[in-house]
Structures are given as structure tokens and as C-alpha cells.
Write a structure and sequence with these properties.
Strands 4-3-5-10-6-9-7-8 form an 8-stranded mixed beta sheet, covered by helices on one side. The chain is elongated and about 85 Å long. By secondary structure, it is of the alpha/beta class. The chain has 3 domains: 81 residues, Orthogonal Bundle (Arc Repressor Mutant, subunit A); 102 residues, Periplasmic binding protein-like II (D-Maltodextrin-Binding Protein, domain 2), CATH 3.40.190; 102 residues, Periplasmic binding protein-like II (D-Maltodextrin-Binding Protein, domain 2, 3-Layer(aba) Sandwich), CATH 3.40.190. The relative contact order is 0.13. Helices cover 44% and strands 25% of the residues. The longest helix is centred in the N-terminal third of the chain and has 26 residues. The protein is built from 11 helices and 10 strands.
Amino acid sequence: MSRLNYHHLHYFWAVASEGHLTRAAERLHVSQSALSAQIRQLEEQLGQPLFLREGRKLQLTELGAVVMGYAEEIFALGNELLASAASGVGRNTLRIGSVATLSRNFQEWFLQPVLQEAAVRLVLEAGSLDELLQRLKTHELDVVLSNRPVLGNDKQSWRCRTLARQPVVLVGPPLPAGQVFQFERDLPALPLLAPSRKSEIRLRFDLLCEELALQPAIRAEVDDMAMLRLLARDAGCVALLPAIVVRDELDKGLLQQYCVVPRVEETFYAITVQRQYLSPLLQDLLRMASTEQRMHPETASD
């Protein structure tokens, strides 16, 4: 059996990705004729055409779609190899991306097992979920921490595991001695700080209020948990957020937890991509987080 020419396969992958011969040639800095010749050689080796021409666009044949699947896996594995070598895999480097709005207290809880390890080098990056997933896809990150799940598909095999579920609470300035907060009675009369409508917390909270026929007086909508934490501490309003976000303020008595909001919680996820090599350091960290949450579910929700 003749050996596969990976140079030909790379040219095929570029054309299939672009769906257009001219654009692929420009991207690869080769002539269209040279590119066509390379693909014809691959088709001759495989014994079937890989493209059908529809106007100025190229469509994959049935075999072309199969070959494209193999090509994406092959070149993704090559990218993983290069990224792993460049980042020092095997030398205790862990590259973690976190959604910019994620609770800093949760991130600290997740990283706690390795923060005191002098031999571990951490690279922490924040950004939007889409930006971080793109970096994860190209193996520039080892894991992405998010409060939104992602689903794999035929183009990308995401691995999304639940790390923790946090109760969502209402917090505010300490109440006078003896005063008891009642959710349905007191909520509508108080100025409320809440996550934005893009948040899963807000979605669940709005549905709960609809079911109970409540109309909360929302003073501000905030999509950054760090800012929501500051406003909860300094604005004198009631705030809707996971307890872990204001853990320190609750411990110091700066804020008081009025109630746990029924049927509303925030879930934290660790997202990885299917890889040939998953860092043992990351595997241990994920295992410890899952074990800690099972044994002490209050750990991440104080």
C-alpha cells in the first residue's frame, strides 16, 4: 500500500475549509494550477473525486467529507503536539482560561490545590467564552472555566464537566436585630442588583418571579461578578448572586444573607477538548475539585 502524502492532504484540507480554490491558493501562497495538481494527485491515489464544482464553489463529495474528517483530526493532533511542546507540557505548566464574568472566589477555590505548589507554573487568562474556546481548540489553553455549558458537535468534541453547583442568595446590609426577611413579601419593595439577562441566574430568577407574580425593583443589571460584588457591598441595595461571590463580606459581617433563592443556582463547568495527551496536573486538579464538591458541597458555596 502506498503511503499517504500529507502535503497533498494539507492542500485538500485548505481548499475544503475555504470552499474556494482561489482563496485557498492565496492563503497557501501557491498558484491555482499547482494547487489543483496536488489535489488531483490525492484523488488519483484515493481512486475517487473529492470535490464537485457548483458554480464558482467547490462542494465535497461523500468521500471528500470522510477525508475532511480525517484531515481535521490529523492536523488538530499536529497542532496539539506543537502547542504542547511550546507550552512546556511535562514541566508542570497549566494554562487556564476563565470567562471574564466568573466569580474570582470560585476560581481561587478551584486553583487552591496547586497555588502552594512551587513547581507548578500557572498561566491564567480571562476573556469571552467564544474567545477562550477558540484558544482551547488550537491547544493554547488546557481548560476553560465557565458558568455556561457547551455542547460538542460533529466539528468539535468539547468535554464539559460540572465542577460545582452554587446556591444563589439575596444579600444586603445587615438587618436590624430581630427583623426577618421574607422573600415574597419583602422582595418587591427593595432596590435590587441583579445579573444581566444573558445570565443563567437571571433567566431562572425571572422565571421564578413570573411564577410567583412578583415584580422586583431592579436598580442595576451587571454582567461582571466582580462589579456586582462591589455594588452589593457599597450601594446599600439587595443583590442577587451566588454566595461564593461575597463569601468574604459575609464572613466579615459587611453583608448579610437574607435568603437562599429557591430553584435558582449557578453551575460552574470545566471545558476541555478531546486530546491525545491531557496534562496529569489538570487531571488531578479536576479530580480534586469533583471529589471536594462531593465530600463537602458547602466548600464552594460558603
